[in-house]
């Protein structure tokens, strides 16, 4: 059997505009039938679910979405609750807020709710994640690492993510927190994965055709480790700096596309006038 | 006539260790006959020449250098002074401190002292520069730009540097200040130049054989724009973000080498045990 194509994902690098043009959040709403579709705001990542949930609730309401629910999981037993499971089953879009990505997986992993997430995603439910909610989208996620620093061995912590997108590692608040070093670390450890660093107020919309489109005011960095000719990542000296020779990088802006299969960026010329 | 090979340069990304092992400053001293050679500390870049000069004076004295002079240029007329010119003529090493790179070129450019710098460099005097003193080494230098941000058009200011090394653009405090965005800007504008981003407490020693060696506790990033397949840098919309497709990057650590002619990094296997 052919593997099923990935469903739609919108992955946001955090700090998306919530007061001005709201370009990214509008794009999220455009995925919906605003009158009939259910949008679920999942505040699992944050320890301030009420504040964060209410903020997004207000924004999405103002953007015209009629059916909005808040999925608040503060303990693992909440992930067993029938009403939470039913809430997800009815969802057309699930929006994961920021916070701590390890809260998402440690609270949901192995629960019935986790299975439902996979199920509804396979059936076409759109998943959106910002900041921690972005990192958690991939098979393996960066949990922590150094900001504004160069790649050092043993300074990055990774863990299994939700696995909604394969063979990539996402990082967020990318330029703003100087995170190229930690993403280089992650990619050097397994160059089969593509590193995707997403700036604040910037997002990628991953289509089921296997490509993504950049949307927002910042940049998206793609680190392609398949060309690496040498790295010392597997050698001894656990505390040393990394050498990485011949890595390929792309810097994408609003409207630029990237083919995840061929690992090549491309542009849609007709849309040039829409740029920024 | 064959063009003369470049002399020796040590280019430091700022904040080199001055209290611990002093690896980089010791390397500088190792270039000298400590008893007979003259080391000139050029405090042109800083508005605090006394403090900065005295600090380095003390360090280099403690490292055993006997003959040290302070070259303090605070106005352009100081660059006409006979004793300053003679001081440089006697120098075996000139060490440019940090400060503002534009002070160096605006105070020295077009003066007799500037000519002497070129002359003694051609004759084999070693030039060392840290921070602003590093940026100023190349033909074109970055004067200012955004830290912790992605490459945007019209956000980088460049100016002519001292021109001791050709076809490269140096940036310093590289990972620590999140400067990959501004170096990407500079390289996208002319991919003929190699971008060299140097971390704090890290340096490159450029030999007259056309390669450099990395020394220090951080990383050196090389951005090679020759592989770029697309960039929007020359298009309209002056405020927009840059797209850059297919740039090549290398991350080098202590003891890694780079061939400036072939644009390829390499390692000296015998020296593996010296690593870090």
Structural class of chain A: alpha/beta
Which shape of chain A, going by the Cα principal axes?
A: globular
Largest sheet of chain A: 9 strands, mixed
> Which spans of chain A have pLDDT < 50 for at least 5 consecutive residues?
1-6, 272-276
Number of strands of chain A: 16
The amount of beta strand of chain A, in percent, is 25-35%
What gyration radius of chain A follows from the Cα positions, in whole Å?
Answer: 18 Å
In helices, the fraction of residues of chain A equals: 10-25%
The SSE string of chain A, one letter per element, is EHEHEHEHHEHEEEHEEEEEEEE
Number of helices of chain A: 7
Please state the oligomeric state of the protein chains shown. homodimer
Alpha-carbon distance between the two ends of chain A = 41 Å
Quick structural summary:
By secondary structure, chain A is of the alpha/beta class.
Q: How are the SSEs placed, and which strands pair?
A:
The structure is a homodimer of 276-residue chains.
Chain A: E1 9-12, H1 23-30, E2 38-42, H2 49-62, E3 67-71, H3 82-89, E4 93-96, H4 101-108, H5 112-122, E5 126-130, H6 132-135, E6 140-144, E7 157-160, E8 168-171, H7 180-189, E9 194-198, E10 202-206, E11 211-216, E12 220-224, E13 230-231, E14 244-252, E15 257-259, E16 264-266
Parallel strand pairs in A: 1-5, 2-3, 2-4, 4-5, 8-9
Antiparallel strand pairs in A: 1-10, 6-7, 9-12, 10-11, 11-15, 12-14, 13-14, 15-16
Helix pairs in contact in A: 3-5
């Amino acid at each position: 059997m052919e593997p099923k194509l990935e469903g739609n994902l919108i992955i946001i690098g955090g700090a998306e505009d919530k007061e001005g043009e709201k370009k990214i959040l509008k794009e999220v709403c455009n995925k919906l039938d605003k009158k009939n579709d259910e949008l679920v705001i999942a505040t699992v990542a944050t320890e301030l679910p009420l504040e964060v949930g209410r903020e997004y609730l207000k924004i999405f309401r103002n953007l015209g979405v009629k059916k909005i629910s808040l999925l608040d999981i503060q303990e693992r037993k909440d992930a067993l609750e029938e009403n939470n499971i039913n809430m997800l089953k009815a969802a057309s879009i699930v929006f994961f807020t920021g916070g701590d990505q390890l809260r998402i997986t440690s609270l949901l992993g192995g629960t019935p709710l986790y299975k439902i997430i996979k199920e509804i995603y396979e059936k076409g439910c759109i998943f959106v994640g910002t900041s921690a909610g972005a990192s958690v989208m991939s098979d393996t996620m960066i949990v922590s690492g150094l900001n504004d620093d160069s790649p050092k061995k043993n300074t990055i912590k990774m863990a299994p993510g939700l696995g909604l997108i394969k063979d990539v590692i996402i990082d967020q608040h990318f330029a703003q927190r100087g995170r190229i070093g930690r993403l280089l670390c992650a990619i050097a450890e397994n160059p089969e994965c593509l590193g995707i660093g997403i700036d604040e107020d910037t997002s990628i919309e991953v289509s089921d055709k296997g490509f993504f489109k950049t949307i927002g005011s910042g940049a998206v960095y793609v680190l392609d480790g398949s060309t690496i000719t040498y790295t010392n990542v597997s050698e001894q000296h656990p505390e040393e700096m990394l050498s990485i020779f011949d890595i390929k990088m792309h810097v994408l802006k609003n409207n630029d596309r990237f083919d995840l299969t061929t690992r090549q960026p491309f542009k849609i010329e007709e849309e040039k006038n829409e740029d920024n």
